[in-house]
């Protein structure tokens, strides 16, 4: 059967699903299309022509290469297609965004036919996705006296690819759509359980919010054709949770505009808004698409006649509406005054959405074009011997004389690109910063590979120290979707230059370790910048930023990220942690004490600089990981010298294990990381460069002191599913002591796993089971307990130390890598399940609890439908707590009393923490 015949079969299958033909990325299929186009009598000629023009993916896909070569032949007159004139062929090449299209345009521009060369040059002057091979050709041709090459370079030197674009509209009409009340998780926009379809944009778009919401958005578009639909998080923040490009892609698909008439299902320029603005990582993703993100401030704190904030029965501030954005309101954004209007009435200042840099993203159709444009202009000016002068808005550079630097300011100044020597920058400055470590995870990786193809990248930037492609989000079930997607992803990323969890050639066993844990080990410098395709990319060394799949692609391709230096909040500790408390309780108490102290979340959008000092990186990661739920932009651990050295030695040993498994590549990336770790340890030991610390006179937005003395009970983050105020549900801000539940709340399932646990948690589990057996004669589970260690090295170490054998004794199921599950578990027995390392229930895309269950988990997400979906008669609940609380809850089948808890943990070595003696 021909590829085209198979494609026709697929088209028919997709029709049944209400889907269009899938965009083509296969060059062999495009070759068949071209053969059928050349045959003027072919029965499928018209459809083949349509697919070639409108349904072939651009960039560096093999399909793009075959299409671009054919268009070149048409331009040269070697092929004649009535429907594709040479002029139209040039137009099609101009929409193909680099890679082979630029290569062939350069062939034509530097060729002997002056007329064709001039046309090709005009198209090239509009392109920005050029790489070294392309710019080297231009530089060489210019040096050789080629006038066309010089003219192209002169255009690039003026950044005409940007300056000649139309400015954004002065007035943008929007029609409002309330997507939900309270914080809107990206799970609403791109559910984790639909991760398998993210690279199929049309199919994945069907999961946005709900079919009813999609119909309502479509109706608004039809009713107001001159307005853009603005999706709103009423009384909340838009886009909290995972940093999904797929979420913004879905919003753009339904409410944005098509990027190119010749590229299907790639839309840009969505408009999103929230009462409390947009979460930082989601706002970055909005910028990737040239979209607009508004901070509405349409609900404000209610005050009494004395100006005091009025509080409700829970002690929370009461809100009152400043203005209405109910669904169907037609509003106007004025991009000059930077105000939001209803008619002539000014509603809000939205200037934060229209900084000079964000406006440039909107004008260019997305942030990638600006990043590449800046590099291209610099290259052209340097090649022509011109002084460097940017056509883009100058980066904001903020420097306060006499003011010290926070930890994040120190890291950004150390890694800044394009900043004058000696220039010291403080928070708020816009900075291009070099990226040391990059992580791509498996449920967004296919999108990252698509982004890399779209920006015509073929190899990782040489300035990146190391990059890793994980397999953890699809680890628990090796089903047909995973079997189709993951090998394809690993092959692409391995070839691109990443260390991959799976070897495309099957030379080493698959490693499903949780990506954040791997990146935490690969980070071998406390002054590093890390970017990863998940919001929990928050290392306990360096500063790490969770990012969308596109920003990850950009970091891989360019070795850079661009952002303002964030403000910081300093967190320190005082007092003594009680013996029966676990460090996870300190993490929850930090959030609770901060909210009680400030009323508002001072962590939101800022870096939490936590002076944790004495905890090794594995344990400290529990804090930095949770900062995603605190809505912080990132977190930095300030460590003692000796503690950091120990953490780096552990990282070295784990990197060596990866090398021993055969995971290093031809460039010896992993070996290079060990060498860099050795160099960093030497710097610390010699006193030449001690562990990262802020300056004594650094300035913070706020300072939080966590009192360990008042943490007397285990703490639980509760989704508060029945709160009368919808906006208070699923926020991570409701932190309750265990006594709140009176030992009566039924627990249907327990989960120990995700990136929040470490080896110590597995040993706590082992010790508790032994403890309970001694106390009660036997261990009997009244609820299932699912355990998924985050990494294989933890399993190996537990086996070596005897703990795994003990766990196996109590387990009714133990994973087998030689025979992985090929279907998700739908029912659980009251027993212990030892699952394969990876994300498991925390991700929600494979394993899930039964609908309506109350789950007690160590994981990070309590969003609606993530770990557990609602039943018709009961809302699913995901309560988040420490490992000992989860264990005891499954033994009892309910939340324990404080007395039961204290007895169960007696003599057990919990994850302890004591602040540094001299902070």
Automatic annotation (TrEMBL):
SUPFAM superfamilies: Aconitase B, N-terminal domain, Aconitase iron-sulfur domain, LeuD/IlvD-like. The keyword Electron transport does not apply. Keywords: Iron, Iron-sulfur, Metal-binding. Signal peptide: none annotated. GO terms for cellular component: cytosol. Residues 7-162 form the Aconitase B HEAT-like domain. Gene3D superfamilies: Aconitase, Domain 2, Aconitase, domain 3, Aconitase, domain 4, Aconitate B, HEAT-like domain. One of its GO terms (biological process) is propionate catabolic process, 2-methylcitrate cycle. GO terms for molecular function: 2-methylisocitrate dehydratase activity; 4 iron, 4 sulfur cluster binding; aconitate hydratase activity; metal ion binding. InterPro entries: Acnase/IPM_dHydase_lsu_aba_1/3 (IPR015931), Acoase/IPM_deHydtase_lsu_aba (IPR001030), Aconitase/3IPM_dehydase_swvl (IPR015928), Aconitase/IPM_isomerase (IPR050926), Aconitase_4Fe-4S_dom (IPR036008), Aconitase_B_HEAT-like_dom (IPR015933), Aconitase_B_HEAT-like_dom_sf (IPR036288), Aconitase_B_swivel (IPR015929). Residues 178-405 form the Aconitase B swivel domain. Residues 410-893 form the Aconitase/3-isopropylmalate dehydratase large subunit alpha/beta/alpha domain. This is Aconitate hydratase. It comes from Erythrobacter longus. The lineage of its organism: Bacteria, Pseudomonadati, Pseudomonadota, Alphaproteobacteria, Sphingomonadales.
């Amino acid at each position: 059967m021909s590829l085209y015949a198979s494609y026709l079969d697929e088209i028919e299958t997709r029709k049944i699903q209400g889907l269009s033909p899938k965009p083509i990325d296969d060059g062999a299929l495009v070759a068949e299309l071209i053969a059928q186009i050349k045959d003027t009598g072919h029965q499928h000629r018209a459809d083949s022509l349509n697919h070639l023009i409108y349904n072939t993916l651009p960039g560096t896909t093999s399909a793009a290469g075959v299409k671009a070569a054919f268009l070149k032949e048409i331009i040269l007159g070697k092929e004649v297609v009535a429907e594709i004139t040479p002029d139209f062929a040039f137009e099609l090449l101009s929409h193909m965004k680099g890679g082979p299209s630029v290569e062939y345009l350069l062939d034509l521009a530097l060729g002997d036919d002056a007329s064709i060369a001039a046309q090709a040059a005009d198209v090239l002057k509009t392109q920005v996705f050029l790489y070294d091979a392309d710019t080297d050709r231009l530089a060489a041709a210019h040096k050789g006296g080629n006038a066309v090459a010089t003219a192209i370079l002169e255009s690039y030197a003026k950044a005409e690819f940007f300056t000649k674009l139309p400015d954004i509209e002065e007035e943008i009409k929007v029609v409002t759509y309330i997507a939900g009340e309270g914080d809107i998780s990206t799970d609403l926009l791109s559910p984790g359980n639909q991760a398998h379809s993210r690279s199929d944009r049309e199919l994945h778009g069907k999961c946005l919010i709900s079919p009813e919401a999609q119909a309502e958005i479509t109706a608004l578009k039809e009713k107001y054709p001159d307005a853009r639909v603005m999706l709103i998080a009423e009384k909340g923040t838009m886009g909290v949770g995972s940093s999904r490009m797929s979420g913004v892609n879905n919003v753009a698909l339904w409410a944005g505009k098509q990027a190119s008439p010749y590229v299907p299902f790639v839309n840009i320029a969505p408009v999103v808004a929230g009462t409390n603005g947009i979460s930082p990582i989601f706002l970055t993703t909005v910028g990737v698409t040239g979209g607009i993100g508004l901070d509405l401030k349409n609900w404000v704190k209610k005050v009494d006649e004395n100006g005091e904030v009025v509080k409700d029965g829970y002690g929370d501030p009461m809100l009152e509406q400043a203005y209405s954005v109910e669904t169907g309101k037609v509003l106007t954004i004025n991009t000059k005054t930077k105000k939001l209007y209803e008619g002539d009435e000014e509603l809000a200042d939205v200037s934060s959405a229209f900084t000079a840099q964000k406006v440039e993203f909107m004008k260019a159709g997305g942030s990638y074009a600006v990043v590449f444009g800046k590099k291209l202009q610099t290259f052209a000016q340097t090649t022509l011997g011109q002084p460097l002068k940017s056509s883009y808005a100058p980066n904001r550079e903020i420097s306060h004389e006499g003011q010290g630097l926070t930890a994040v300011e120190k890291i950004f100044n150390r890694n800044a690109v394009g900043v004058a020597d000696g220039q010291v920058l403080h928070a708020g400055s816009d900075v291009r910063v070099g990226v040391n470590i990059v992580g791509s995870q498996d449920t967004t990786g296919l999108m990252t590979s698509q982004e890399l193809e779209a920006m015509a990248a073929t190899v990782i930037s040489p300035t990146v120290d190391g990059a890793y492609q994980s397999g953890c989000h699809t680890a628990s079930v090796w089903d047909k979707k995973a079997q189709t997607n993951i090998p394809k992803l690993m092959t692409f990323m391995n070839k691109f230059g990443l260390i991959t969890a799976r070897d495309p050639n099957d030379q080493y066993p698959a490693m499903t370790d949780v990506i954040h844990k791997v990146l935490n080990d690969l980070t071998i410098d406390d002054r590093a910048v890390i970017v990863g395709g998940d919001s929990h990319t928050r290392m306990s060394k360096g500063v790490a930023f969770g990012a969308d799949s596109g920003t990850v692609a950009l970091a891989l391709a360019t070795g850079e990220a661009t952002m303002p230096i964030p403000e910081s909040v300093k967190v320190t500790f005082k007092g003594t942690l009680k013996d029966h408390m676990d460090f996870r309780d300190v993490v929850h108490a930090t959030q609770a004490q901060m909210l009680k102290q400030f009323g508002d979340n001072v962590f939101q959008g800022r870096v939490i600089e936590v002076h944790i000092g004495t905890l090794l990186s594995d344990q400290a990661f529990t804090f930095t990981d949770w900062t995603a739920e605190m809505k912080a932009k990132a977190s930095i651990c300030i460590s003692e010298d000796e503690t950091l050295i120990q953490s780096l030695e552990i990282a070295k040993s784990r990197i060596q294990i990866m090398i021993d498994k055969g995971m290093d590549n031809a460039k010896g990336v992993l070996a290079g990381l060990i060498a860099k770790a050795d160099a960093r340890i030497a710097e610390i030991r010699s006193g030449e460069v001690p562990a990262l610390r802020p300056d004594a006179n650094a300035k913070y937005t706020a300072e939080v002191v966590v009192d360990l003395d008042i943490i007397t009970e285990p703490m639980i983050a509760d989704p508060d599913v029945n709160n009368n105020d919808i906006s208070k549900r699923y926020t991570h801000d409701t932190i309750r002591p265990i006594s709140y539940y009176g030992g009566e709340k039924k627990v249907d399932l327990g989960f120990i796993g995700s990136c929040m646990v470490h080896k110590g948690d597995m040993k706590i589990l082992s010790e508790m089971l032994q403890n309970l057996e001694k106390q009660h004669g036997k261990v009997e589970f009244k609820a299932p307990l699912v355990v998924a260690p985050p990494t294989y090295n933890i399993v190996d170490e537990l086996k070596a130390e005897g703990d795994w054998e003990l766990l196996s004794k109590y387990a009714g199921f133990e994973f087998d890598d030689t025979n992985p599950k090929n279907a998700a578990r739908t029912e659980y027995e009251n027993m212990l399940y030892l699952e394969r390392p990876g994300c498991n229930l925390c991700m929600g895309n494979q394993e899930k609890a039964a609908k309506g269950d109350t789950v007690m988990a160590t994981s990070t997400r309590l969003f609606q439908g993530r770990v557990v979906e609602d039943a018709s008669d009961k809302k699913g609940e995901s309560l988040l707590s420490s490992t000992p609380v989860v264990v005891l809850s499954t033994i009892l089948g309910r939340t324990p009393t404080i007395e039961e808890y204290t007895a169960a943990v007696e003599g057990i070595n919990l994850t302890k923490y004591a602040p540094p003696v001299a902070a």
